[in-house]
Amino acid sequence: MDYIRRNLFSRLDRYIMRKFLGTYFFSIVLIISIAVVFDFSEHSDKFTTNHAPLRAIVLDYYANFVPYFANLFSPLFVFIAVIFFTSKLAGNSEIIAMLASGLSFKRLMRPYFISAALIAVLNYYLGSFVIPQGTVIRQNFETQYKNNKKITSATNVQLQVGKGVIAYIQQYDDNIKTGYGFSLDKFEKKKLVSHMTASVIRYDTISESRFHWRAQNYKIRTLKGLREEIKTGVELDTTIMMEPMDLVFSKGQQETFTSPELRQYISKQQERGSQNVVQYEVEYHKRIAMSFASFILTVIGASLSSRKRKGGMGLYLGIGLALSFAYILLQTISATFAINAGTPAMLAEWIPNILYVFIAYFCWRQAPN
User: Fold this and answer.
1) 48-56 long-range CB contacts below 8 Å, 24 or more apart?
2) Of 117, 142, 271, 293, which has the maximum CB count within 10 A?
3) How far apart are CA 251 and CA 283, in angstroms?
4) 311 pLDDT exceeds 60?
5) Which burial class, exposed, middle or buried, applies to 69 when counting CB atoms under 10 A from its CB (0-12, 13-18, 19+)?
6) Do residues 52 and 275 lie in contact, with contact meaning Cβ atoms separated by under 8 Å?
7) Helix (H) or strand (E) holding 216
8) Alpha-carbon distance 124 to 220, whole Å?
9) Backbone angles phi, psi at 149, to 5 degrees
10) 115 contacts: CB under 8 Å, gap ≥ 6
11) What's the predicted TM-score (pTM) here?
């Protein structure tokens, strides 16, 4: 008898997981297909005007557009999937039959959690490793064919490139990887010991090593007590612990980094004392927080829609959509506060999850048992 019950529950798990994952991916295909149609209708004139080739539109733009937005709105798709198929099960009295057979609601949620875990792992892997690479291709396409101008220059850039070493560039052009009005100051025990200037500094893009720069028309002043040594020259190969990506910050640049690259970049910028890392911290923590959101929204969706009620699933689908959009809105507001108001990035990204945990607990308590 125990074997039969275990086997029955095993089949039940597979049945619910098939319904859950099938509805989830079907909703993604349906909604993203509509989004693609609207996006193409909106930008087709720009594609035509800028002579975008069909291959680039399909492979460079939409092949990366689809996974980016599917992953971005994954919590919405999870909620829709759970509400939709659970309401249908409840409407067909299948959940009543499951609970009447002695199955607890807690046990019923096991296949839901397994499915949510699979979705969470998939979302995190895509968002942290796969989609950033595609985002680079998509943004390059948008720059070339949608007139989304990319920031390629910077002025008055100052950053710490080492312990007690401060670099300054008056003007930098990322197109040719060249800076003008360069200076490099080295301090020891808060005293200036070396001052280097160069009219032009150029990043060596063909060098096998990183951080390789060529300085032109340079002057190096070395201070030794009351003595001063001056060295001048036409060109100097030097190693400076900075790269072009440290000098120019483009909109959406944080989305092009994988999570390990984000973590490394944030650590490097914090060591330099840079304040322009909040959006990178927000992006890093958002990827983790959104993965956990799958579990929270699954509990809310299943708890709301597991009762059989008159009127069908329309009310609960509406509530589910409202809660999903509220979650996305709250996440956006929290990120904005982190960037503009100084709220810690980790706290800002986890505020929606923390709030929705209480909503999930309340819904769980109201679920049928």
Assistant:
1) 50/144, 50/145, 50/146, 50/147, 51/145, 52/141, 52/144, 52/145, 56/141, 56/145
2) 293
3) 13
4) no
5) middle
6) no
7) strand 212-224
8) 49
9) -65, 135
10) 16, 17, 20, 21, 24, 298
11) 0.81
Average pLDDT over every residue of 69-98: 87
CA distance 197 to 188: 18
CB 118 within 8 A of CB 21: yes
Yes or no: say if 181 and 169 are a contact pair by the CB < 8 Å rule: yes
Produce one character per residue of 9-45: b if its CB has 16 or more CB atoms within 10 Å, e if not: beebbeebbebbbebbeebbeebbeeeeeeeeeebee
Q: State the residue for tokens 């060109």.
A: 235
- Of 235, 350, 357, 212, which is closest to residue 299 (Cα–Cα)? 357
Type of residue numbered 158? Q
Contact in structure between 69 and 32 (CB atoms under 8 Å): yes
| Residue 158 CB contacts under 8 Å (≥ 6 apart), including other chains | 166, 167, 168, 169
Please provide the distance, in angstroms rounded to a whole number, between the alpha carbons at the two ends of the chain: 23
CA distance 148 to 61: 13
- pLDDT beyond 70 at 43: yes
Both structure tokens of 362 = 């309340």
The string of DSSP codes covering 96-134 is HHHHHTT--HHHHTHHHHHHHHHHHHHHHHIIIIIHHHH
The continuous run of DSSP H or E covering 143 comes out as helix 131-145
- CA–CA distance, 191 with 311 (Å, rounded to integer): 77
Question: Can you tell me which residue has the tokens 């001052």?
Answer: 195
Give the rounded percent of residues in the chain with a pLDDT score beyond 70: 91
> Based on C-alpha coordinates, what's the Rg of the chain?
27
Give the type of residue at 302: A
Residues 6+ apart with CB under 8 A from 15: 111
CA-CA distance, 54 to 191, in Å (whole number)?
60
Token look-up 């280097």 returns 196
CA angle 9, 14, 20 (to 5 degrees): 125
